[in-house]
Sequence to fold (516 residues):
Amino acid sequence: MAKYLLLKHYRGAPAPANDVPMEQWTPEELTAHVQYMQDFISRLEGSGEFVDSQGLSQEGTFVRYGGEGRPPVTDGPFAETKDLIAGWIAIDVESRERAFELAGELSAAPGAGGKPIYEWLEVRPFLTEAPTVTE
Amino acid sequence: MNEALLRELVPAVIGVLVRRGADFAEAEDAVQDAMVEAVRVWPDDMPQDPKGWLVTVAWRKFLDAARADTSRRRREVRVETEPSPGPGEAADDTLQLYFLCAHPSLTPASAVALTLRAVGGLTTRQIAQAYLVPEATMAQRISRAKRTVSDVRFNQRGDVATVLRVLYLVFNEGYSGDVDLAAEAIRLTRQLAAKTHHEEVAGLLALMLLHHARRAARTGPDGRLVPLAEQDRSLWDTRLIAEGVDVLQAALMRDRLGEFQAQAAVAALHADARTAAETDWVQIVEWYDELVRLTGNPVARLNRAVAVGEADGPRAGLAALAELDPSLPRYTAAAAYLHERDGDPATAARLYAQAARSAPNLPERDHLTRQAARLNAQLRT
Fold:
């Protein structure tokens, strides 16, 4: 088994096909979207592939060391210019193909007009695969 | 409270319950419940006959559960219509349990989880911790695995090769949290070797012992990977090496060579060298030839190419490598190593950096990055 992170980008990824901002969806469309995600996670729990899932605030601030004796430097929030992560789902699956299959499924969550949003998901393997003994 | 003893008894107790008519999943649940009770009761009141105690309590748990569910009728009909299994040795039950837990209908991950629980006696929480997943996730995997094998007849003959693959997977997961999976895999393989005289079981046991013997030397105090040639050989566990070599020799005497015996032979040749320079690479190449012949495994071919590089020089190694698919795991790292030995640090540095980007784990990535950095620093001066 190998763990993968499915990263949901607010921006930074190419624009999805169904690119209507969420606040312009109908309440029913939002409810259907949220339900789809919950069902997706329940299925992962049922199949023993679920590791973790978290949503993140849209407010992201970049912070770095400000130099000796100085406060850290903060940048933002300038959400419109930054690559921001909306949240993630971590899975533990048999293969990379399975991770892609699940990401594809997640990307098909319904959005405006009840159509799939075609959301882009970044799929990244964890660096946790045990070192095999080689010589 | 002797947890090791408790875990030792698990497969035999499950076997007894199954022989009395419980199905595998029910027996497994009942034994886990009985273990929880043993952990509670034994420290104050250690039974004279721990196995008998566990069987009694587990059987009671099973009956309690059976009374509460409707499957009882089903089971009664089945027990009624099937001939009752013969008296059979408890040891045979344990062997059956190994086969069942490694059944080909299970995915490797499920087979591993089920083996650790039913044969190894680990709790779901311990297994979840070892694999860094939530306990609920591991519980699901185990119960799905149990459902998958619930229709498999317990006396069906299994495939030793599958069992060995599962045990080797457990071994390679190594170590995390409070369960040392490598030690657990060795314990289970020893148990299996005591019950069957299959030469590849001995081969795998030898391989594990020889690898395990070198574990302390394989990583530095800061967790960094130490390559074989640089390992402090005084840290190798000579007792485990001696045992591994004995087990291997006994297996090789039977003249039925298999993959694990051949791998163990390579490990034994490494363990046998007092310094890296004394390694008998010519013999190692011969064993890799056997491995390639036996398995055709591309990873064996890759390791063979590296060994050829040591035995006949880096040019020969690179020539052997050139015949292989460059997308093989660790191909680039092997190429980097051989180019460095061939006196081309610039190419080696570039390949090490490239290998680092596709490394599957942190220690390996850091090791390869460090190799690239070392060569780049050399090239600048």
User: Anything to note?
Assistant: Residues 134 and 229 of chain B are 38 Å apart (CA to CA).
